[in-house]
Amino acid sequence: MPDIPHHSALAHAAYHDLLRSLRDEAAGDLRGTPTRVERNGRAYWYDSFRIGSEVRKRYIGEDSPDLAARMHRAQQDRAPAEQRRKDRARLVRLLRAEGYMGLDPTTGSLMAALANAGVFRLGGTIVGTHAFRLYEGELNLRYGFDQTAQTDDLDIASFERLSLALEDVAAPPVQQVLADFDFAPAPSLEPGKAWRWRQTAGNALVEFLTPAFGDEGLRDLPALGVQAQALRHLNYLIADPIPAAIPYRSGVLVQIPRPERYAIHKLIVAERRRAEDRLKSQKDRAQAAFLIAALAEDRPEDLAEALADARDKGPRWRERIDASLARMPDSAALILAL
What is the pLDDT of residues 201-233, one digit of tens each? Predict the structure, then answer.
């Protein structure tokens, strides 16, 4: 098994302290009364508050013992909000001193603005290279130069059905947030609809994606107020995502796929687009190989479960996974040993 470099135990603890603080802050950020709502056999928590004669509900999260504990802990926390922010900023400085990757000011500000608008609270999940970079904290990995390449593309995926069910919307609207950062909608094949937003004074691109349950095409994401490109295999990737902390300013709370699902998904998409974009296919395999090596060492059960789940999806899934692994003998050997 290859030697996987890690950050120090101090840095790993600091990352999880930052993540815990951000999650507690989000659970305790209430304007009114926490209200539990059951819908279609599932339970959700909302912050219910009154504006004039109107009662509004702001989505907090799906009901779980962890969320209930966080809301209780946040209500018991007597530290001033400014002190909590300073404590998180100190943790971010520690992470940067330990060599954690940061974001450039423009991308960091955009991520913070999207988070403040509720994009990730409402189900948005960062996918692609930005998600890969954030496994540095989750898995305590020290990335090498070839893994630190920054991309100008930001991909955000969400479930159409979840977006419909939440009955809450981003505020300010996502389109306004993007316009504030000089993004304009890129033309699409469907007039009046846009799922890609390009920065007018640069190469940055923001794309919205959603799983395809049937034909691929554009779908509405009502909670985010945007359209999204439906793609196959995405349902597998963003099922049961995890929170992540971006070490920018006093920290930004976002959502990313589980690392084991990201690794297996990259095997699938690498083979799917190998003929049309070899460079991206090679990048997909490189990211998959790095994560497979790390997970085989640290979380082999999670990796084995994710692989089994993907193989159970059908023969085309198995063919693509096997075709990618045939080009990755080291990763194939790790997978075989699970």
Answer: 877 899 999 998 878 888 999 899 999 999 988
Tens-place pLDDT, residues 20-76? 999 998 887 778 888 888 887 888 888 888 887 777 888 888 888 888 888 877 777
Distance of CA 141 to the CA centre of its chain: 17
Q: Which residues contact 97 (CB under 8 A, 6 or more apart)?
A: none
Residues 6 or more apart in contact with residue 213 via CB below 8 angstroms: 230, 235
Sign of CA dihedral 293, 295, 298, 299: negative
- Strand pairing class (242-246; 252-256): antiparallel
Average pLDDT over residues 154-171: 84
Confidence of residue 115 (pLDDT cuts 50, 70, 90): very high
From the centroid of its chain, how far is CA 302? 18
Query: Running DSSP on this structure, what letter comes out for residue 143?
Result: -
Which among 179, 169, 20, 162 has a CA at the least distance from the CA of 113? Answer: 179
3-state secondary structure of 115: helix
Q: Residue 1 pLDDT more than 60?
A: no
10 Å CB burial of residue 306 (0-12, 13-18, 19+) is buried
Paired tokens of 82? 């400014």
Q: Is the pLDDT of residue 261 over 90?
A: yes
Look-up: residue for tokens 């600091």? 14
With CA atoms as reference, report the closest residue to 235 among 268, 201, 189: 268
According to the model, what pLDDT value does residue 243 have? 97
Contact yes or no for 49/31 (Cβ under 8 A): yes
**What is d(CA 214, CA 61) in angstroms, rounded to the nearest whole number?**
28
Element (H, E) at 322: helix 315-326
Taking the C-alpha atoms of residue 197 and residue 209, their distance in angstroms, rounded to an integer, is 12
Distance CA(285)–CA(301), nearest Å, equals: 21
